[in-house]
Specification:
401 residues; 31% helix; two-stranded antiparallel ribbon; Transferase(Phosphotransferase), domain 1; 14% strand; Phosphorylase Kinase, domain 1
Length: 401
């Protein structure tokens, strides 16, 4: 990654003073030759395509993309607050408070919701990939492991609704059609797959399949007798690729039997756990033991001595543990969010009181000051007319780190 700055002069012909505004950008530089050797060049292509699709405050804006020699360069937003892993390690006990966890989790959930509505399964959620903007709000990063498929919003009705609603749900179920060796964008897409294994479509009725499993019905639970809601979840997306970070891998990814959008809700549960307790729930002595723990070990919560059993914080801890327990269900078809996605998760008691429409108006736990320090070190001089007429010299405006 590199940081770029550009300066805009604001002055008039009648005023000799010059007010300069310095804007900072981040540039991700990808070595295509190195990726080609590892047979992962398609991942850079996928990331570029995903970035170009985005238009959301909690996701990066792709300002420019260009190739230089064997490098691909993506110019995006600069986040002076670093990532949530570094932020967590600065906290007392290297863990966030429940209120801070709720803030970052809520914004991350909204970002995942947007991705799923666009038919994108993220597959790489972890604190290192959640960056903090200058205003303290979050921005997801790194989209090279994404899985993309078509998704159509569906109308959810209560169980007491007429049976015609079932036909509506079936007809509006998202589809992910792909020929072998191609990623599942659409029938006309010519892009190669993200990874080496083929993406397939399951020719089955997801809603009928859900009803065959005992346990909580996440497709309609929480809806009143006359309630309706719209959900857009790429539930038919399927891949057999082994991708992700070991401690965050979902059981269905490890087993290799195929996975879909439910992997993002598993990783969201691991994300919540790490934010609260300072570690992931199934970490073993090595990667192999970590994977075995994910498949076999039951979920357990450590005791937090700073939380009193009679405090309001304890009540919040009980709520978030309940949410984590429902997210970290090893069977993806019984996992909260498996069918309705973020709609079901937003309704959980842990997020009670969150104003989702005005979430960007909430003051973040911390507002970074790093950018102001950077600005104070920059000495800007007013350009002469001769300098202004010179071609733009990119090398004078890039600092690498």
């Amino acid at each position: 990654m590199s940081m770029a700055s550009t300066t805009r002069d604001e002055s008039s012909d009648n005023d000799s003073t010059c007010s300069s505004i310095t804007l900072y950008y981040a540039m991700k530089v990808v070595d295509r030759e190195a990726l080609a050797v590892r047979k992962k060049l398609q991942r850079a292509e996928m990331e570029k395509q995903i970035l170009a699709m985005m238009d959301h405050p909690f996701l990066p804006t792709l300002y420019a993309a260009f190739d230089a020699s064997h490098y691909s360069c993506f110019v995006m937003d600069f986040c002076p607050g670093g990532d949530l892993l570094s932020a967590r390690q600065r906290q007392p006990g290297k863990r966030f408070t429940i209120s801070s966890t709720k803030f970052y989790a809520a914004e991350t959930l909204v970002a995942l919701e947007y991705l799923h509505m666009k038919g994108i399964v993220y597959r790489d959620l972890k604190p290192e990939n959640v960056l903090i903007r200058e205003d303290g709000h979050i921005m997801l990063s790194d989209f090279d492991l994404c899985l993309k498929c078509d998704v159509v919003p569906k109308l959810l009705r209560s169980k007491t609704s007429s049976e015609s609603s079932v036909k509506t749900r079936r007809s509006s179920a998202p589809s992910c059609v792909a020929a072998p060796m191609h990623s599942c964008f659409s029938a006309s897409s010519k892009r190669k797959k993200v990874v080496t294994t083929a993406i397939i479509r399951e020719n089955m009725d997801v809603y009928e399949d859900q009803s065959q499993h005992k346990g909580h019905d996440y497709c309609t639970s929480g809806l009143g007798e006359h309630d309706t809601e719209i959900a857009a979840e790429p539930i038919n997306a399927r891949s057999k690729s082994f991708v992700g970070t070991h401690e965050y891998l979902a059981p269905e990814v490890i087993s290799g039997n195929g996975h879909g959008s439910a992997v993002d809700w598993w990783t969201f549960g691991v994300f919540l756990y790490e934010m609260l307790y300072g570690r992931t729930p199934f970490k073993g002595e090595n990667n192999e033991k970590t994977l075995m723990n994910i498949l076999k070990q039951p979920l357990a919560f450590p005791r937090v001595s700073s939380v009193s059993s009679s405090s309001k914080e304890f009540e919040e801890m009980v709520k978030v543990q309940d949410l984590i327990s429902k997210l970290l269900v090893k069977n993806p078809k019984k996992r909260i969010g498996c069918c309705m996605g973020s709609v079901e998760i937003k309704r959980h008691e842990f997020f009670k009181g969150v104003n989702w429409a005005l979430i960007r108006s909430v003051r973040p736990p911390e507002v970074p000051a790093e950018l102001n320090k950077i600005r104070s070190r920059v000495s800007l001089q007013k350009l002469s007319k001769k300098d202004k007429d010179q071609p733009y010299q990119i090398t004078h405006h890039f600092d690498y780190f």
